[in-house]
Description:
Blueprint: E1 2-3, E2 10-17, E3 23-31, E4 37-38, E5 78-84, E6 87-93, H1 98-139, H2 152-172, H3 182-187, H4 192-204, H5 213-250
Antiparallel strand pairs: 1-4, 2-3, 2-5, 5-6
Amino acid sequence: GGRGAGPGGKPVMLTILDAKGDTVYSQAGKAEKGINRWNWNLRSKGATPLRLGEESERGGFFGRGGGANGPAVLPGTYTVVLAVQGKSFRQPVLPWDSAAAQAQYDAGMQMQQEVSALNEMLNGIHRIRTQIAGIRQTLRPEEEDATAPSDTAVVNAAGKLDRKFKVLFDSMYNTEVQRGVIQDDIHYLTSFADKLRSLGYAVQGGYDQAPRQPVLDELPGMRKQLQAYLDQYNALLEDDLAKFNQLATDRHAPVIVGGKKITIGS
């Protein structure tokens, strides 16, 4: 439908052509001096309307009313033709670049896998540290509770393990930043997690647009850095956490559920 055209406007005809030059949709209207807006709903022209006096319908999808709507058009290259005062103007509309779309999809899927791996790692660290806090509280009770179990060796080992996971977590994610508060974004340096997520938004851009080259140039470095973090996390699971669980088992203390190794795309 059009907007901005009053009863005294100039007659205009808008026509949508497909790649073969065939008319897909057309609409007559009026336009006034200045900016006029017209929206195409990405459908082809509807069936011929039924005109039987009072029984007339507005055409619509297969002639059943509801406006001049036909089937939705397929992805492709279309041209809008504006005819006004004996002059004709052409401009491409809804260009479809399959190569750009594929590049955008591939980059988007890569970022989806990387952000997923990052979030799984952050979730894993949080889950492990929560368990450690519970173990330390259980094995290091208040002084007046003489009946509670106590094991200094396990408590100390849990503390060392907690610090290692905290250092890794803090190197990727800043818990001090209040999400959605602009002032905090200014006061703190951008964390790795925020950079990776921002890159994920950047590769999407507009519809059917290949990621810009500066964005593509960042992808290998960010993936390499993410892999380094994953290597540290997986090493903590296989070595430090496993050693702690062995100590805890030997001393009949609670163990920590660490979960499986995390890989990109798993």
